């Protein structure tokens, strides 16, 4: 399922619009009409949202291009109704790099705001008495469009620089704390503050602004999941794939049938399989894909017809932290482990979770 509309690649980075973004446009259209707006009001308001999101994309490019200067690539920049997301391939671990990458996004909006300030008569708006100003700012029109865009960029800077991890300001805070207390404790502290602020935003949001409440939910769970990830990566540090991989596993031959795979699942505890012949690993077959394969091809189809041949492998001497990142980031969470051409093990996320459970309990 393709859930995003691609807008092409810029500086080698894919820019896309998530399908939920269109709900924001729909919401704006309904809002304007419900306040007895005209068709031209709708055009100005949606035009404003689009212009604002161009600024958001530029903000994300600020993060992405700075990350690139530290050797970190970006998978894509995605527009959501609540803002933009630059999916960096990894989070910079060096505090200086994290600081620079985090601050680069809001810095872009500062530059945009300064440029707009030069061309927009901001003072003439602000010098008006409150009543006239309120009148002139009801609804977006040709007269106040640029002023609104200026104000929105200022708001973007202020909001993103709040120390609510994982917002940009929260990342800046973590980078600064990391220098003194190390990355794990810095993340714990930043995430605790992030979650506290998220709860505050949520309470304010449900009364005054539902989008703020929605953003608060993302901040809360974002803070939680990144905190867990940093703690887990810390526990895995110093270990290699061989320390955690499964070495007793069932190998399926390409000419065996799907029925044989079902028998194997029922008889043992394996859920996902490496398909291999005498020349080595040929593919993988995951239990989650098996039902669909049986429905389309029948239970007597050979495994070679349905196996996934586009699979990643790991080396037993790879750091376990790399395996963890790969298993969490990709859609497939099962990898054969090859030493040269020889299949020596398999690893999946459950495996790593077991390893983590014992590591965590042994630390106490
Ligand atoms: Zn940002």
Label this structure with key terms.
364 residues, alpha/beta, CBS-domain, 3 domains, binds zinc ion
Describe the structure.
The chain is α/β, with parallel strands linked by helices and 364 residues long. It has three domains: 1-161, no CATH class; 166-236; 241-362, CBS-domain, CATH 3.10.580. 59% of the residues lie in helices and 14% in strands. It contains 14 helices and nine strands. The chain has helices spanning 21-34, 39-69, 95-119, 122-126, 130-136, 145-160, 168-181, 183-208, 210-236, 241-244, 258-267, 287-297, 320-329, 349-362, and strands spanning 4-10, 13-18, 74-80, 83-88, 251-252, 273-277, 280-285, 334-339, 342-348. The strands form three sheets. Strands 1-2-3-4 form a four-stranded mixed β-sheet, covered by helices on one side. The chain has a three-stranded mixed β-sheet with strand order 5-6-7. It has a two-stranded antiparallel sheet with strand order 8-9. The longest helix has 31 residues, at 39-69. The protein is elongated, with a radius of gyration of 26 Å. Zinc ion binds next to helix 2. Zinc ion is lined by residues 59, 63, 105, 160, 168.
Brief rundown of the structure:
The protein contains 14 helices and 9 strands. With 364 residues, it is an alpha/beta fold.
Write the layout of secondary structure elements.
Elements: E1 4-10, E2 13-18, H1 21-34, H2 39-69, E3 74-80, E4 83-88, H3 95-119, H4 122-126, H5 130-136, H6 145-160, H7 168-181, H8 183-208, H9 210-236, H10 241-244, E5 251-252, H11 258-267, E6 273-277, E7 280-285, H12 287-297, H13 320-329, E8 334-339, E9 342-348, H14 349-362
Parallel strand pairs: 2-3, 5-6
Antiparallel strand pairs: 1-2, 3-4, 6-7, 8-9
Helix pairs in contact: 1-2, 2-3, 2-6, 3-6, 3-7, 7-8, 8-9
Bound molecules: zinc ion (ZN).
Zinc ion binds next to helix 2.
